[in-house]
User: Which sequence fits this backbone?
């Protein structure tokens, strides 16, 4: 997508970038509005999680406060503010108080660089980019800031002066460093194709070619798993595993200070989903049409693309919740071997493959936006997907739990289940 | 798209904000006795340096500063500090006893003396930032392929490719060495 507009249009034309003064003014407006909506979404993701959990576990979930439980997040907030704040006598007070904020802020400011709709033309002002801060280093900014999220957890664990909390903090730092590497490596492929680190350019590249999930399927897989690990949710919630470490790094926290940690987690979920959408699912692009990318921008286009972006992000937020209530927790050694022995080598191999293929196609003179280019990448991805999910897997990751039992024993167990009517629940 | 025309006063204000915060954090870093608190102050220094890099229109260096130093190296530092479980903070002071403190003061003065000698008594005037804003704006005015990382990536992977690859081999050797050393100790137990 190009923003090239004929220069014979007037200066105050809404299709051109705004003046510096207007740029600052609208930057502030965008920051305020985006922050408000983001916080609202974070609050309501807590409700979404509890309702979806109820749905998955065949129970009701919170539905009493307001219609369908819609006022539950407000009630929870009030409850948390009214509760007593406990401060352990042996805690390092300054760091103990700061840790929840350190955990929350990185998730929030990462959101600032993600573009969430087509640029909005405002008459008399100019074309306003629909990202709070359209930084030239957009993507590196995200990597840099999200690498700071670990401090909140580690500092919370250390400053509590409690051995379970410390163990949780140590686990958090080890886990997040491990998966950050795989995550960074998986995104190198995206940067290779886009040739730029600006997120708007990455979205534009996907509009011109195809969504990166088609071009770089394995990179998306690695990124999704790493993002799940970075948010510290089941199956990667080792830092706070309640069965081993009580509540891990936030064992000593109470009231609103405690509440900041789950809120940071939900903020991270939304940011990770937004990032996945932007890097691999075309950002605010609407598939199978060039209408939304073409030059004369309008308010309608901005609103429609905003809707498309929200729908995609919602899908991934839902998927995060879905995974949490479906998959059990990893053992610690499984967590480490998945990160270091599978995801990292696979990401390195994939970078080599993507770089070689892109180089070969450029050398052969295949146009980047052509179907042949997309097809070549698609073919490579099919090979990788088959290799990883069927050959390398050997009944470990994606195969069902019973795949490691011998076939005869499985047949016997199934026969036994049929006889005792366990499946129908009528009893033998 | 991003207007790079800083107002000179805004530019100076930002320079002094980041610069003075960096200095204050650095002083806090060396005077704190708790290793974790010291490490957190050092993280703050990294942030302020990143801010100064961005003001020089070196956004890539700024992002890498945060990503590598604040986000990776300092996290590992913290990890090690927590694992070592160093004793009570008061036992960790480097300068112990009266004579130790006097010695520390003398070393400090010896380090400040060359700075004063070099500035020739004109220290305050030398603290005013040079006209960096104009230079930064000039650098931003010349657009290059590959956005802001193009000018870094092009020479790195073309002119200095051999040096780059040799450096990575050196780092690999260091990693292998660390693993070997770590392994020997566990075998001896």
Assistant:
């Amino acid at each position: 997508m190009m923003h090239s507009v004929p220069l014979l249009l007037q200066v105050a034309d809404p299709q051109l970038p705004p003046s510096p003064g207007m740029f600052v003014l609208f930057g502030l407006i965008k920051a305020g509005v985006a922050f408000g909506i983001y916080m609202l979404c974070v609050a309501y993701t807590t409700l979404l999680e509890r309702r979806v959990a109820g749905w998955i576990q065949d129970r009701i979930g919170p539905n009493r406060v307001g219609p369908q439980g819609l006022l539950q997040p407000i009630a929870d907030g009030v409850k948390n503010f009214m509760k007593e704040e406990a401060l352990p006598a042996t805690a390092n007070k300054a760091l103990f108080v700061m840790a929840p904020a350190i955990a929350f802020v990185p998730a929030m400011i990462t959101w600032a660089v993600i573009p969430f709709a087509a640029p909005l033309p405002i008459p008399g002002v100019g074309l306003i980019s629909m990202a709070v801060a359209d930084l030239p280093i957009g993507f590196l900014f995200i990597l840099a800031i999200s690498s700071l999220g670990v401090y909140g957890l580690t500092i919370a664990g250390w400053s509590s002066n409690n051995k379970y909390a410390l163990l949780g903090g140590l686990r958090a730092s080890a886990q997040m460093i491990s998966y950050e590497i795989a995550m960074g490596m998986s995104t190198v492929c995206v940067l290779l194709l886009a040739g730029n680190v600006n997120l708007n350019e990455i979205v534009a590249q996907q509009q011109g070619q195809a969504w990166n999930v088609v071009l770089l399927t394995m990179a998306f897989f690695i990124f999704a798993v790493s993002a799940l690990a970075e948010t510290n949710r089941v199956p990667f919630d080792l830092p706070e595993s309640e069965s081993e470490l009580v509540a891990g790094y936030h064992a000593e926290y109470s009231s609103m200070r405690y509440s900041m940690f789950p809120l940071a987690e939900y903020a991270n979920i939304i940011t990770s989903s937004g990032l996945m959408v932007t890097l691999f699912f075309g950002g605010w692009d609407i598939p199978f049409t060039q209408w939304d990318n073409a030059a004369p921008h309008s308010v309608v286009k901005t609103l429609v693309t905003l809707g498309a972006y929200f729908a995609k992000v919602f899908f991934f937020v839902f998927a995060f919740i879905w995974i949490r209530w479906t998959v059990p927790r990893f053992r610690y050694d499984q967590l480490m071997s998945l990160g270091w022995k599978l995801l990292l080598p696979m990401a390195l191999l994939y970078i080599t493959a993507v770089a070689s293929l892109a180089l070969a196609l450029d050398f052969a003179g295949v146009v980047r936006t052509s179907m042949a280019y997309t097809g070549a990448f698609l073919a490579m991805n099919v090979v990788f997907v088959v290799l990883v999910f069927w050959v390398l897997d050997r009944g470990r990751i994606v195969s069902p739990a019973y795949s490691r039992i011998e076939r005869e024993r499985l047949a016997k167990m199934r026969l036994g289940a049929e006889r005792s009517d366990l499946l129908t629940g009528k009893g033998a | 798209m991003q207007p790079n025309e800083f107002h000179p006063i805004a530019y100076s204000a930002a320079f002094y904000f980041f610069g003075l915060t960096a200095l204050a954090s650095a002083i806090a870093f060396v005077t704190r006795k708790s290793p974790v608190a010291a490490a957190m102050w050092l993280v703050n220094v990294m942030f302020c340096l990143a801010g100064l890099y961005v003001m020089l229109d070196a956004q890539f260096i700024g992002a890498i500063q945060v990503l590598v130093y604040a986000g990776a190296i300092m996290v590992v530092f913290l990890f090690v500090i927590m694992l070592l479980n160093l004793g009570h903070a008061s036992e960790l002071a480097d300068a112990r006893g009266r004579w130790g403190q006097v010695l520390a003061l003398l070393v400090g003065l010896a380090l400040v003396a060359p700075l004063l000698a070099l500035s020739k008594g004109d220290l305050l005037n030398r603290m005013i930032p040079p006209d960096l804003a104009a230079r930064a704006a000039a650098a931003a005015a010349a657009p290059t392929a590959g956005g802001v990382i193009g000018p870094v990536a092009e020479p790195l992977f073309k002119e200095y490719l051999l040096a780059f690859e040799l450096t990575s081999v050196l780092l690999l050797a260091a990693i292998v060495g660390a693993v070997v050393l770590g392994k020997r100790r566990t075998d001896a137990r």
